[in-house]
Amino acid sequence: MTTAQPTLHDQQPTIAQRLGDVHARITAAAVRAGRDPQAVTLVAVAKTFESDAVAAARAAGQVDIGESRAQELSTKREELGDSVRWHFVGRLQRNKVADVVGAVALVHSLDRPALADALADRAQRLGIVQRTLLQVNVDDDETKAGCAPDEVLRLLARVRELPHLACLGLTTIPSMDADPRPAFAQLRALRDQAAERYPEVVELSMGMSGDFDTAVEEGATLVRVGEGVFGSRQGD
Ligand SMILES: *Cc1c(COP(=O)(O)O)cnc(C)c1O
């Protein structure tokens, strides 16, 4: 026993193994809540990870990939094309709208009327309907993006007036320093309320690496998991 040989325990799990683990946890959480595991879509959030990592996830069967920066989305799309289904989950500035509209299946972060107008303008120019989710700041956390809960119906009404924009559900990112479960439950209640008037509002994008099990128990239809799939993010 002179030099330490690498052992099985030194090896990081592969992306395929991590994906298997995340899926197993989604299934277990869904079963605990009496939900169909198939009703939950895993969006693997690849921000800061290289295109190679996305390609490895795709090879392991992962289709939905999230990005939170417009420039990074564009770069990876140049490298990988539309072999995956892209999602935009980050804060979106109006001057970046052209990089995102038409490039992603779903924008998870619509949170203000001016952004709705900018997205719709661009979608009209491309002759498409851009699908979005409305991001809600349920905890009223100043560091988090999202509209206030009492603005949801007004924003949905605005989107309904824009034929090139559709809003299919709600997103939230709970406060770091609180139990996320009440925030997830509140988002679901907001979705149920909104769906009475706007039946197309069905999706709930909630849950990240640290709390996606809870989110699935509380009704998430899309979970956004980064580190849980790709490993730890350096320097972010
Ligand atoms: C980075 C990010 C995620 C994934 O976070 P992890 O902690 O790596 O799972 C999810 N949603 C948004 C909006 C993000 O920016």
Termini separation? 38 Å
Largest pleated sheet: 8 strands, parallel
Strand content: 15-25%
The tally of helices reads 9
Order of helices and strands: HEHEHEHEHEHEHEHEH
How many DSSP-defined strands? 8
Structural class: alpha/beta
Strand order of the largest sheet: 7-6-5-4-3-2-1-8
Characterize the overall form.
Answer: globular
Helix content: 25-40%
Bound molecule kinds, no repeats? pyridoxal-5'-phosphate
Radius of gyration: 18 Å
Overall average pLDDT? 94
Q: Which ranges are low-confidence, i.e. pLDDT below 50, for 5 or more consecutive residues?
A: none
Comma- or semicolon-separated keywords:
alpha/beta, globular, 236 residues, 39% helix
List the topology elements.
Blueprint (H helix, E strand, L loop, with lengths): L14 H18 L8 E5 L5 H9 L4 E4 L2 H11 L4 E4 L8 H4 L5 E5 L2 H14 L3 E6 L16 H9 L4 E7 L8 H18 L5 E3 L6 H6 L4 E4 L1 H4 L6
Parallel strand pairs: 1-2, 1-8, 2-3, 3-4, 4-5, 5-6, 6-7
If you had to describe this structure to a student in words, what would you say it looks like?
This protein has 236 residues and is of the alpha/beta class. Helix content is 39%, strand content 16%. The chain has nine helices and eight strands. Helix 4 links the parallel strand 3 and strand 4. It is globular and about 60 Å long. The model has no long low-confidence stretch (mean pLDDT 94). Bound molecules: pyridoxal-5'-phosphate. The site of pyridoxal-5'-phosphate has 13 residues, from strand 8 and helix 9.
